[in-house]
Amino acid sequence: MLPLSSSGRHWLLGVARDSLEAAACGSSYEAPRVPAELAAADHVELDRPRAAFVTLHEENRLRGCVGHTDAELPLRVVVAEMARAAALEDTRFPTVAPEEVPRIELEISVLSDLFPISPDQIVPGTHGLLVRRGLRRGLLLPQVATAYDWDSRKFLEETCRKAGLPANAWKHGAHIEAFTADLIHE
């Protein structure tokens, strides 16, 4: 994963912002093509299929977070779709109202590929985690461990809980994968 330039990161935040505003107002929005003035490396990265999450914060509180762990769509498209989904489809929150949009701060997490990891290799704040067992799965982004000051064991236990599993499911057959994330925020 090549890092995006400052202008590429800014453009991607604009895509997320435009998608959020359209969603809150009930309009449709499609991610635009990458503008010619961005660097060639940005064109490659923004059009490359990537996994990403978009997180919404309102007054320093979580307001929505939705992502896609499969790298099937171009980054610019997945960010637009996840911004819309975070505004309208995160079942933990009511849909975002138009008057809320100016108070919402956006954060985009561009995910690396998933890789197997053992519990003793987990580095909170560096690794995000995905725990799976059967049809249950839970994912926590790297910044969650930092926000709550969790050590690796607590982070792993909370990811198991997010999957709807017992906290110690990682000791009893749950599959653990990790990823890193490039954070882009307003």
Give structural notes:
With 186 residues, the protein is an alpha+beta fold. Helices cover 32% and strands 25% of the residues. It contains five helices and eight strands, in the order ααββαββββααββ. It has helices spanning 6-25, 40-47, 75-88, 142-148, 152-162; strands spanning 51-58, 61-68, 104-111, 115-116, 128-133, 136-140, 175-179, 181-185. The model has no long low-confidence stretch (mean pLDDT 95).
How does the major sheet shape up?
A: 4 strands, antiparallel
Task: Pick out the low-confidence regions.
Answer: none
CATH structural architecture of the largest domain: 2-Layer Sandwich
Q: Output the helix-strand order.
A: HHEEHEEEEHHEE
**General shape:** globular
Write the SSE topology:
Blueprint: H1 6-25, H2 40-47, E1 51-58, E2 61-68, H3 75-88, E3 104-111, E4 115-116, E5 128-133, E6 136-140, H4 142-148, H5 152-162, E7 175-179, E8 181-185
Antiparallel strand pairs: 1-2, 1-3, 3-8, 4-7, 5-6, 5-7
